[in-house]
Amino acid sequence: MNDKKEKIVKVGVIVALLMAAMASVSVMPIQAANGQIMNKPVYGTFTVSQEFGVYNPTYGWHTGIDIVPKYYYWVFAPLDGKIEATGYDWRAGDYIVISHIPGDSNQYRGYYPSEVWTKYYHLDGIFVEQGERVTRGQVIGHIGDTGTWCTGTHLHFEIRENGRYGTAVNPREYIRFGDGKDIW
Ligand SMILES: [Zn+2]
């Protein structure tokens, strides 16, 4: 390994430790900016590799949005909630399911589903357990490429209104993802 590479690796490790320390004391940004209902589930620069609603002959309609982060691979709870399920599915890989009660924060759309559920697929780390309460901005997992319905490291992030198997909606209705260049 040459000097430059070694330096980059070292900086990467320091940044990772710093981020983990920050997350553990909940000093990550916790407010939803610009009137959006939820925070982004990722931090920093990212690209959207597939939008909600795209049809694929193999997988059917895309029920979420696929996010490929550039630097940071932690997954953050976008809103306070309760961990309803974690586990492994051969298609989704390691996954997390959270229920949220959006309440008054759901003014952005002018529509108030009683519950909003979010799902996170293809993780390679799960840091929460079923039944646990999480707060907005808390680190819950790590983005990976697990499961067969995955063609490269990314987060499949999904929002369903009114229950785990409720209506899948475009996450952009809840979160201002922009083009991925905006921070948080
Ligand atoms: Zn997806």
Task: Describe the overall structure.
The protein is mostly beta strands and 184 residues long. It has one domain (32-173): Distorted Sandwich (Glucose Permease (Domain IIA)). Helix content is 12%, strand content 34%. It is built from 1 helix and 12 strands; from the N terminus they run H-E-E-E-E-E-E-E-E-E-E-E-E. Strands 1, 4, 5, 6, 7, 8, 9, 10, 11 and 12 form a 10-stranded antiparallel beta sheet that branches. The protein is globular. The chain starts with a helix and ends in a 15-residue tail after the last strand. Residues 11-18 and 20-33 have low confidence and may be disordered. The structure holds zinc ion (ZN). Zinc ion (ZN) binds next to loops. Zinc ion (ZN) binds at residues 50, 62, 64, 66, 156.
The amount of beta strand, in percent, is 25-35%
* Helix-strand pattern: HEEEEEEEEEEEE
CATH fold call: Glucose Permease (Domain IIA)
Q: Look at the structure and give the mean pLDDT.
A: 81
* Domain tally: 1
Helix proportion range: 10-25%
* Molecular shape: globular
Largest sheet: 10 strands, antiparallel
The assigned CATH architecture is Distorted Sandwich
